Amino acid sequence: MKKHTHIALILAFVGGTSTAWSSEPIQPISPVKEINLAQVELGKKLYFDPRLSKSGFISCNSCHNLSMGGTDNLKTSIGHNWHQGPINAPTVLNSSLNLAQFWDGRAADLKEQAGGPIANPGEMAFTHTLALDVLASIPAYVTEFKQVFGNADINIDQVTQAIAEFEKTLVTPNSRFDQWLLGNKDAITADELAGYNLFKESGCSGCHNGAAVGGNSYQKMGLVEPYKANSPAEGRVAVTGDEADRFKFKVPTLRNVELTYPYFHDGEAETLTEAVNIMGRVQLGKKFTKAENAKIVAFLKTLTGDQPSFQLPILPPSTDRTPQPKPFE
Known about the structure:
By secondary structure, the chain is an all-alpha fold. It has 13 helices and two strands, in the order ααααααααααβαβαα. Strands 1-2 form a two-stranded antiparallel ribbon.
């Protein structure tokens, strides 16, 4: 579908009196509207800068690779000194649409989340103080932070604010399913539409709804049948201390889901076919036929939108004062 046609549809259905998706549990993704461009450009550099890690090798993009659907396509991520992470890295794409960040929701927003991996000994393994020392040793960063925030001293609040502002731009509108929602009934095939109807009729849309097709509630993994996870993650209980929240996780977004394999918090489902079968069984008490599964998978693949596209940032060079990376300590 041509972009000018897509824009016309948005004007017709958003600007007019009709909303083609008003009766649907899923809404189209809208392009980002309000953004601080100066913070975005600074945050883009910080997102890709491995010098915010102890090793000088790991950046935000290492686990949330924007060339790979905003994740790393690994069962669990690799942290400092080849540390094996305890949980599957969720996609950063459309993460601004989530009710909270991380699988257990321990960060209220993108800004709070951005500071976590830097100081996590199993991830970037640095401290906020040392990360700030690195940035303060690089004149180009000092200048840019002063231009963007108006302060002579760099602080972690500014660092996380800039990263979060960049991450807000990582939305993926204009999927074929969005085009269908906006009125182009030829944007998806008959099988894909049948898969969407199955998705709704089976109860999948009870949790996977809204613009992100998920991300807006917590649900227990294993509602109908216990899910045997190969992961130490306990879910929301680790945050609330409430035993009723054990194995409750934030419902993942299904946007771009064909790109974000493997699936679930433990990364145990390697394919969409496997994920649909498991979710049907343990969450809905339903066994999908091979044909039903194929139709749902076909629908899920229509949720892949326009991927973020931009020129890679050129990072400012270190100086003699820049603390040296310590990749093997």
